[in-house]
Amino acid sequence: MTSACVPYAGPHWIDELPPFDWDDLRDAHRRCRSVLDRLAGDRGLLSRLVAEIEHDPVRLATSEIHPLINRLILYQDDARHFQVRLHMSPGSRELVPHDHKYSFTAYVLAGAYVHVWRRRTGTAEGEFTSQDIRPGIVSVERPGTCYTFGSPLIHQTIMLPGTVTLFMRGPRTKQRSHAAMDMLPQADDWPLPSELGKPKHANGQRPVTIEEYRGMCAQLVRQGLIDAVPREREPR
Question: Taking a C-beta distance cutoff of 8 angstroms, is the pair 87, 165 a contact?
Answer without folding.
Answer: yes
